[in-house]
Amino acid sequence: QAGRELFLVLLAGGHMSCVSCCCLKIEESETADEWMLRPNTLEPSLFQRLCLCQCSEEERRPSGILLVPEISGLAGVTLQLGDHATAGSLQTLKWTTYDQTKRTATMQVFGGFGGAAGTGQWTEPPNSLHWMFLMNLGRCGNYTYRFTFSEDFRYSDIDIQCNPLPLCCICIPCIPAWCTVPRCCVSYDMRQTSDSKDGSTWDRYSSKCGGEKEFTYKLVQVFTENGDEGEQFKELATAPKQVMITL
After folding, report:
1. Tens of pLDDT along 140-181?
2. Contact predicate 218/190, CB 8 Å
3. What are residue 189's phi and psi, to 5 degrees?
4. Strand, coil or helix: 230
5. 8-state DSSP, 41
6. How many CB atoms lie within 10 A of CB 174?
7. Burial 212-237 (b: 16+ CB within 10 A, else e)
8. How far apart are CA 97 and CA 66, in angstroms?
9. Burial class (CB in 10 A: 0-12, 13-18, 19+), 64
10. Around Cβ 135, how many Cβ atoms within 10 Å?
11. Contacts of 46 (CB under 8 A, 6+ apart)
């Protein structure tokens, strides 16, 4: 029994070292308001410095989403509530690039080259080598979500944009996200629930290979844009105690 406990301790320590080497960071989910909503990014990692030319903290600039009452709740910290693969992930759209005319919000999910400061605004499970690889691959390819809202802001299509060249072992991070994944391959959308008036609760739907869209999870606000407890703060208890972010 003692040998097994020692093995688990060493394994956990090795995993944490691996996370650090991959230029990711483990944070406590209960303090997400402190590091996800802070006005500057965290001190950049070696990866961010050498590959993406960011050598100091970057100022985060609030997006125009805060100025749209119907979706201002997305500028807080939201939680993916469900039983899907990334259940418990946290994210914010407070730092996206918002085009008021087109009603589109664009965010580099894990950060990337150029654009708005993007690291530390989307979390994934901390105990997954799979996500350690994908988060760094994502920022090398400027993996981006583009949210296109309806006129009444009750619905939004979510398009995936990226530079797919890293998948072919051509890693040039300064190439922007020039490719939009066709909706016939992967299609995401979110629909504001009937009891939500400020964008604090959404139903997320997904489909693959042209299939019928199915309910995937519920997106709920756990912290407001000011870091106060949101209406669904109690659901934060369903998130992993620790989460992983890029920096």
Report:
1. 999 999 999 999 999 999 999 999 999 999 988 889 999 999
2. no
3. -150, 165
4. coil
5. P
6. 12
7. eeeebbbbbbbbbbebeebbbbebbe
8. 12
9. middle
10. 25
11. 23
